Amino acid sequence: MNFKQLSQQYKDELLDRVLPFWLEKSQDKEYGGYFTCLDRDGRVFDTDKFIWMQGREVWMFSMLHNNIEPRPEWLECARQGGEFLKKYGHDGNLNWYFSLDRQGNPLVEPYNIFSYTFATMAFGQLSKATGSQEYADIARRTFDIILSKVDNPKGKWNKLHPGTRNLKGFALPMILCNLALEIEHLLDEDFLRSTIDTCVSEVMDVFRRPELGGLIVENLNSDNSLIDCFEGRQITPGHAIEAMWFIMDLGERLGRPELIEEAKNTALLMAEYGWDKEFGGLFYFMDRNGNPPQQLEWDQKLWWVHIETLIAMIKGYRLTGDSRCLEWFERVHNYTWEHFRDKEHPEWFGYLNRRGEVLLPLKGGKWKGCFHVPRGLYQVWQTLEKIQKEENEKYASIATTN
């Protein structure tokens, strides 16, 4: 495998095709924020603004400005989105709405905890890019609200009847693993360690189940036991694999190679479990008992599932040298670039049927925005460059020794 050539492929796709698409097509020059409902060539087909997507795009362009190079157009894109979010995205007490109309009027109440998590990510990176204490305060205060909601993320908007089936979900501790590192610069070291330890324990010791051979389940009883119902049987391969590269990053940050090894092995397990042996690609939802899943879209192939798998596998290879990770990376790379990349227009398709045929030609919508594709391209590009650098240093060291 030619790491140099692959690295260039991911870098060029990010900088030359994907980012220009979002810079040009998504910014609302009249009211601020971003359009995310974009058809195949970038035409806006709906003007509602979803807080998840707004926060993710602010984060993306802030992060790129901070980590690649300080391009003025990236910073301006992030800043105008941040100002729109600051002004319209919450109720005045940093309770973040789910969606707004184009002008910024609230449409859906703050029932969704991930509006809060992506607002935290957005203002955390934007504070780094601008040096703004106001943005830093928004990020830290929102993070505190998230932690206060861990036991009941939806609060008064929880539609489940209390006391009958009290479920806890994998998604929140999973994303907190990543979020803690995102705003590391705003947190006290002891508090950061405590938060990370709690999240890692939830992901690796609670939702990862030894009685299921190490598979990660999406929902558990509040007492951490398995439950036999639709939600309790749900396996979401993409979620689990994405969480594993978060854990690998934490393992590297904390100097815990055993944690990296566990995360790598779990990513390999989940990929093998979730791979469609007949048509290729990874399933969206599965049932751990082999029953029909409740989601009618269970067998669709989604962009983010495959992109997150690419990140996990190339990181797993770099950090452990396990050749199985490289084999999986190559398999998923071939599938992803063949099926999701639009060869005629910038950005990638998001939704395929089981056979790998495009279901929706959109490039952005209510759930797909400026996030998984560019973040994945960035992460894989950067990891491949690290592999090259580390290999060069190893060979140089051997040559010096000889």
Mean pLDDT value = 96
What is the molecular shape? globular
Question: Count the helices. How many?
Answer: 13
Counted beta strands:
14
The major beta sheet can be summarized as:
3 strands, antiparallel
String of helices and strands = HEEEHHEEHHEHHEEEHEHHEEHHEEH
Structural class: mainly alpha
Q: Which residues sit in consecutive blocks of at least 5 with pLDDT less than 50?
A: none
Helix content: 55-70%
Strand content: 5-15%
| C-alpha-based Rg, rounded | 21 Å
| N-end to C-end Cα span | 27 Å
Order of strands side by side in the largest beta sheet? Answer: 3-4-5
List the helices and strands and how they pair.
Elements: H1 3-25, E1 37-38, E2 44-46, E3 49-50, H2 51-67, H3 72-88, E4 99-100, E5 106-108, H4 113-130, H5 133-148, E6 167-169, H6 171-182, H7 189-207, E7 208-209, E8 215-216, E9 219-221, H8 230-233, E10 234-235, H9 237-254, H10 257-274, E11 286-287, E12 301-302, H11 303-320, H12 323-339, E13 351-352, E14 358-360, H13 372-401
Antiparallel strand pairs: 1-2, 3-4, 4-5, 6-9, 7-8, 10-11, 12-13, 13-14
